[in-house]
Specification:
alpha+beta; seven-stranded mixed beta sheet
Amino acid sequence: MAEDTNQLRVRLVTPERILFDQVADAVELPAKSGYMEVLYGHAPLLAELGTGDVRLHGAKGGQAGGEQIYNVNWGFVEVLPDRVTILAGDALKPEEIDVSRAKEQLVRGEKEWSEAGDSVEAYDHALHVINEAEAKLATAAEKH
């Protein structure tokens, strides 16, 4: 189906569920080294996901303009010319994000950051917690 319309078949999967499996005109996603956009015919690649939003453009069932947003946290993405498979450790729709819990996570991450001392590993973990919380809060803010 995707081949006939020059659209991508995009699939977002977590260990618990399949969030979507549908066609879209484009998908933006947070790779570990920054955001990337994939269009039909993209060169094959495999990349590590970072923390942030996956945005489907031109997808059926989306909001105004056919856009759907999902917050993801770590994983991998496989890009082929006609399909994108996103394997995320965690993924949430904006309405599924618990804002108060994300705020608590941000406070916890900032506390870990201030108590990290000379430990590089502690700083890295605290930064991961902070980035994840900030991404969730930003995604939740967009739903309003």
